[in-house]
Amino acid sequence: MVTIPVVRNFLESNEEKAKELMDMFKKEGVVVLNLMSSPGAGKTSLLEKTISKLKEKWKIGVIEGDIQTTKDAERLNQHGIPTVQINTGGACHLDSGMIMSAVPEINLSLLDILFIENVGNLVCPAEFKVGEDHKVMILSVTEGEDKPSKYPLMFRESSVLIINKIDLLPYLDIDLDTIREEALKINPDLQIFPISCKTEEGLEDWYNWLQKEIVAKKR
Amino acid sequence: MVTIPVVRNFLESNEEKAKELMDMFKKEGVVVLNLMSSPGAGKTSLLEKTISKLKEKWKIGVIEGDIQTTKDAERLNQHGIPTVQINTGGACHLDSGMIMSAVPEINLSLLDILFIENVGNLVCPAEFKVGEDHKVMILSVTEGEDKPSKYPLMFRESSVLIINKIDLLPYLDIDLDTIREEALKINPDLQIFPISCKTEEGLEDWYNWLQKEIVAKKR
């Protein structure tokens, strides 16, 4: 595990660097997913489940973004996969410059899939491309049904919406179908996977989607 | 209910305006609380409970910050109190300039307390003062025990930490005392109120703290 302190240069063009990163990832045939959510919606838990399930079959790497601490990277490092921690030192999102400085720490040619776990924030990360194939957002059912209309950019920019913690639905006044409808109003193309990292319900569909992406990128 | 579109001017000094606002609020003897949390932690629910309980005794106003939609302001407006909606149009936090443009829509001299409900975001709002007496943050127990160390600025800047949704604790692998300890490690002066807006457990302590603040400011 490597920790990289980041000094942000607001003048460098994020879009330009994102394009460079995309070319680099394409050349190496690595699927890159940018994972975004509110704090505590379950990004790291989903990664732990996914890595445990798929690491024998596919080569997985993670770039871990946090304002502070290396807690998430430590959790993932236990699974024996290459993990780079970026500490943004206050910045509320990852950008392409940060990913650019992390990439040399990972041997891309050895990977099938690279997860970029963004800072927990439902607003700012959606604005910054990091060379990803897809933005994947996670919403916890506890956050409520009104989040798609209140944070539309994140839902609009994402290809996949994972609705986590569905095991808590019996104890909440929240309807899964309503969340789904609200999300599709904002982005009709969203792939939606309702899951529970705790009970593992729904995870198979997510794994299948992921593996199709890996196979498609290798063609 | 009034909706104010905001164009942010990054060059104006937020601190300077916050000071002006603070003087204005002081002159009118209004307690001002800046409410912050992740999306869906329960800011609006807490306001609804608090307004229902205290509106006969104290005069309450709300400035409601959202990137988009007037949903929260509509919820609060039903309680018959003055509510101003600020739509930040993408900006991930409120700043003093936005509050400055909302204040003329509210008659401060008629108020005992003004709640400023910030954009749902555990990162950026903590950096921008808006003339408040206190920052009050809400953490949902579903967000996990590691949030104080991962988002330290918010916990450091707040005077009060409200831990919401404690009714869900029996269904989570999360310990309330651990959250409390982790929060106090970051900020030993935090006033902590564990509550459930659903069952109303713990709300009395919050109401008592609030009323003491109102009385103290009138002296």
User: Into which percent range does the helicity of residues of chain A fall?
Assistant: 25-40%
Number of strands of chain A: 8
Structural class computed from helices and strand pairing of chain A: alpha/beta
Q: What sequence of helices (H) and strands (E) makes up the elements of chain A? A: EHEHEHEHEEHHEHEH
Report strand % of chain A: 15-25%
- List the uncertain runs of chain A: 3-11
Largest interface: A-B, 35 and 34 residues
What labels would you give this structure?
8 helices; 219 residues; 8-stranded parallel sheet; alpha/beta; disordered N terminus; homodimer; globular
Task: Give a brief description.
The structure is a homodimer of 219-residue chains. With 219 residues, the first copy, chain A, is α/β, with parallel strands linked by helices.
Helices and strands in order, then pairings?
2 copies of one chain form a homodimer.
Chain A: E1 2-5, H1 14-28, E2 31-37, H2 43-54, E3 60-66, H3 71-77, E4 83-87, H4 96-102, E5 113-117, E6 134-140, H5 147-150, H6 152-157, E7 160-164, H7 176-186, E8 191-194, H8 203-218
Helix pairs in contact in A: 1-4
Structure description:
- The structure is a homodimer of 219-residue chains.
- With 219 residues, chain A is an alpha/beta fold.
- The first copy, chain A, has eight helices and eight strands.
- Chain A has helices at 14-28, 43-54, 71-77, 96-102, 147-150, 152-157, 176-186, 203-218, and strands at residues 2-5, 31-37, 60-66, 83-87, 113-117, 134-140, 160-164, 191-194.
- Chain A has an eight-stranded parallel sheet, sandwiched between helices.
- The longest helix of chain A has 16 residues, at 203-218.
- Chain A is globular, with a radius of gyration of 16 Å.
- Chain A binds chain B through residues 38-40, 66-69, 71, 90, 92, 119-124, 127, 140, 142-144, 146-147, 149-153, 165, 167-168, 171-173, 198, and chain B through 38-40, 66-69, 71, 90, 92, 119-124, 140, 142-144, 146-147, 149-153, 165, 167-168, 171-173, 198.
